[in-house]
Design goal:
Elements: H1 5-17, E1 20-25, H2 31-46, E2 50-54, E3 85-89, H3 96-99, E4 108-113, E5 124-127, H4 134-144, H5 151-164, H6 175-186, H7 191-200, H8 204-216, E6 218-220, E7 225-230, H9 232-237, H10 248-252, E8 260-267, E9 271-278, H11 286-292, E10 296-297, E11 301-307, E12 310-312, E13 317-319
Helix pairs in contact: 2-5, 4-5, 5-6, 5-7
The structure holds manganese (II) ion.
Length: about 325
Amino acid sequence: MNRFSQEFNTLNYVIKKSDDILLFAHTRPDSDTVGSVLALQEYLLSLGKKADIACFDPFPEYLKSLVHENYFEFPAHLDLKKYKLIIACDAVERGFEKVRNEFSENQVIAIIDHHPYISMPADIKISETTASSVSEMLYDFFTHIDFPISKKMATFMLLGILYDTNMFQNSNTSPKTLSVASELMKKGAPLTKIVETLFTNKKICTLKLWGKAFEKARINHHNGMIVAAITLKDIEDCEANMDDVSQLSEILNTVPGTKFSLVLSEREGGIVKGSLRSEEYKKVDVAKIAAKFGGGGHKLASGFEIKGKIVETKEGWRII
Ligand SMILES: [Mn+2]
């Protein structure tokens, strides 16, 4: 029995009763939010439902070799009132909170997330912090409702799991995560192709940007932090894009003798994003560090956003 049996039953009941359904992916979509909404969309389409996907940012370029259709719509281009059911998947407090209040009483809101402290109200709330990813939670959903998972759905869910566990290297990888991944492979999910898409197929622009970050990285021997900063100019100089920044904090966190990594990256609109990573044995709670800057996340993977821009000084970087 899954602990969400009741929520899964309710969600599936509402799905069956709704013709127009909206799926919501989080801002700066990662492969877990993408994999989740695509797997759900496949399921909904197979039931003959209309299912749109909304996101405040475009579909990630690097996933277009794996996914050839069903890209995202900007919320402003959709008539949000027409959907009977809205399902937000993964990091619902990144983007979905901006539209949450535009829905009325007679629309059903479901949220599926694995991030801690989800305070957003919803009619159906499925929140499991021990799950590796929302993709893993959806596997439970499809298994619970006894729906045969297609090769496409399996591919999307394995994509989310591999991304959120950093190829089974993060401590959110449980024995169950591995058995779910194994089941998804049995259903035809192409492990090697997904790994290539996510991790090993590195464009020269990505490597150049990483080279810049590695060259600039500094270790603070007092607190064990390894930090690097990426400016918008770095990204422009390397002809790279924001997707290329995402793996940096994971890689820096592998440097021996460090306790946690911090990657600061400038974003459009005068925002600096901080991305923090650590490992269980290093005994640092990076969610607490992120919280000091108004952010949040997991103990071993968290982030924050602050207004400003990055300036390099002799002592290190400053955000002004
Ligand atoms: Mn996730």
